Amino acid sequence: MTKSQDKHVLYVKEELAQNNQRATSYDVARAAGVSQSAVSRCFKPGASVSEKMRKRVQEVATVLGYQPNAIARSLITRRSNMVAVVINNDTNLYYPELLVELSRDFNERGVHMLLFTLEHESDVANILDQVWQYQVDGVILAAQLSDTQLSFLGQRDIPFVYYNRTSDSIPCSSVQCDHFEGERLLVDKLIAAKRKRFCIITGPSDSSVSATRMQGALKRLHELDISDVQIIEGDYSYHSGQESLISMIDELDWQPDAVICANDIMALGCIDAARNHFKFKVPKQISIVGFDGAVPASWQAYQLTTVTQPLELMAQAAVDILMQRIEDPSLPPEKRSFSGVFSPGNTL
Amino acid sequence: MTKSQDKHVLYVKEELAQNNQRATSYDVARAAGVSQSAVSRCFKPGASVSEKMRKRVQEVATVLGYQPNAIARSLITRRSNMVAVVINNDTNLYYPELLVELSRDFNERGVHMLLFTLEHESDVANILDQVWQYQVDGVILAAQLSDTQLSFLGQRDIPFVYYNRTSDSIPCSSVQCDHFEGERLLVDKLIAAKRKRFCIITGPSDSSVSATRMQGALKRLHELDISDVQIIEGDYSYHSGQESLISMIDELDWQPDAVICANDIMALGCIDAARNHFKFKVPKQISIVGFDGAVPASWQAYQLTTVTQPLELMAQAAVDILMQRIEDPSLPPEKRSFSGVFSPGNTL
DNA sequence: ATTCTAGATGCATTCGAATTCATATAGCAA
DNA sequence: TTGCTATATGAATTCGAATGCATCTAGAAT
């Protein structure tokens, strides 16, 4: 770089600073004495640029602190490299871990996550509009949507993957843990432990995950000719786990020796209620099982018997499926299902 | 709407469908027989548009499924309405709740969150580049940055707020829980409970939060002429809470009657180790305190004595400060500090 | 020396909405 | 009817990078 060139670069830099402006590809071009297209190409791997040019431009870009404007790029390439992740704002301690996993996997592919958390069911429509406006390349749905809402995405050809949910009526890609199978397994284990009086604490009534899990458990119980099962509705929270067990015994007057909870967190509440409120020995007097493999479930105070969702695999699968469909939108929907992993614990 | 107009709209719709294209403001303009500027104005509240025009355009927009392209809008307005949220991928169960809070507060203001999770310290530089490229309006930093990295944001005039951290050398806005004060309080409570032999389980050595908390505790202990304090380094995880207590007693041969943990999750591990490994009565034989107010800390099995961070307030403050600085970048940095709330629990 | 080719470069256009400025229209007063 | 205003509308430009196309250059082949 000659001295006069150097000066020119600094002059441009000064000018930008004065006007408090970001460097654009034009600025770099001007400062380096080349065309804007050249600058653009220098930032595109595999483009036809000479070594000399690339070096020169990179030098100037560094001095000016230039980085391509992703927004402008998105506009012309019609690719935002952003995906939306929509999660229910459950009391579900499980999602956070999911977010971290997804974030890792997406970042590896240079994709960024726009996060949407749902407060109320009614926010969905609003959020779908936002998703659409922001031109995201795809969507991960870890929230409950109506078929109408799903079809919104379908009609607009936004690739999406349902996480731990599916729709029977609308074709869609999904990644799931086999809730049904997992619950069957748990029931079998409870039976093997000679449990006789079963009860179930479900999740909120609009949760399809809870519904599937409970169907799995019930089906197996019926197969085994156990039909006298008490069912009570929880809301996935620790507190509702406690309360449900208490009202089950105190109000419904049903004394179970096996409690099947729709998720781990409720199971933990249930354990505490059993131990503290009723002074039961767990699992001697009462068995309690959950579902998820939430982190606190394995803590010594609990050591919950549960089925663990293979979170990493599931997140990766979701990202895989989504990215494939972004690359080639003509791909048909794909569903992947993973078996949960039995975690023996100490409450059975 | 006359029939011929109607037909024209449907024709445009058909055309878009054929080419598999999204409707743009031009399409709407064409279909409605007005100018593009008119369409644009119809979507801007308070713009000068006649009622008739607004109605007509809205009708057509609905039929064509038109929503303004946020990317294109960002380009021209120089406002992306996106903020970056950078969090450490700690074992810290506390962040998830923060995310939900932030998401709620930002969404209320029509701002969207681009989520970045840090695996390694070394990712920071990379992530800052991304943040810059995506033209975010501001950044929430819930991760540790070096002063050099901080100054990157400063130099580029990106408004940002440090969450639960500050820099002494670089002026910056921040929201904090008063860790120092909180720890003093806990120490005083431990003293009031007649505790004599103290030990501390810190967080990872590069965590400034942990450093501040431990300084607060130590300072108070020294003021009270207690200088014989055993310190051991943990990593914020449940497991490290367990291990630290065990190695403290078994290896360092130091038998404490008070354990100060840098966060709640370690304290929970510590409680379990005390109860199960050592058969201690908590708090009879040993007091254990944490910091954060993590959800599981209040579960019956633990009922940890701790100081709870006012999460909602802090998140709101962070959003407030950030948005103010986005509206008016000339505002000087502002630091807000909140006192933690003592949660008595049952382990002291 | 001449022709051909591959690679390098620049020009001009494009993506989609916002906005400035100029113009047109309706409404009202004189 | 004329003139004036206030409001509505459209034309043209802008944001910043990517890219198809045309042009140019250097080196190889003849």
List strands and helices in order, with pairings.
The structure is a homodimer.
Chain A: H1 3-19, H2 25-32, H3 36-42, H4 51-64, H5 70-77, E1 82-88, H6 95-108, E2 112-118, H7 123-133, E3 138-142, H8 147-155, E4 160-163, E5 173-177, H9 179-192, E6 198-202, H10 208-223, E7 230-233, H11 238-250, E8 258-261, H12 264-277, E9 287-289, E10 306-308, H13 311-327, E11 335-338, E12 341-343
Parallel strand pairs in A: 1-2, 1-3, 3-4, 4-5, 5-11, 6-7, 6-8, 8-9
Antiparallel strand pairs in A: 10-12
Chain A binds a DNA duplex (30 and 30 nucleotides) through helix 3 and helix 5.
Q: What shape does the CA trace of chain A take?
A: elongated
Average the pLDDT over all residues of chain A and give the rounded result.
92
For the biggest β-sheet of chain A, the strand order reads: 2-1-3-4-5-11
Q: The biggest beta sheet of chain A, please?
A: 6 strands, parallel
- Radius of gyration of chain A (CA) equals 27 Å
Instruction: State the separation between the terminal residues of chain A, measured CA to CA.
Output: 75 Å
Top CATH class of the largest domain in chain A: Alpha Beta
Order of helices and strands of chain A: HHHHHEHEHEHEEHEHEHEHEEHEE
Task: Briefly note the CATH topology name of the largest domain in chain A.
Answer: Rossmann fold
Number of domains of chain A: 3
Most extensive contact: A-B, 54 and 54 residues
Uncertain residue segments of chain A: none
Secondary-structure-derived class of chain A? alpha/beta
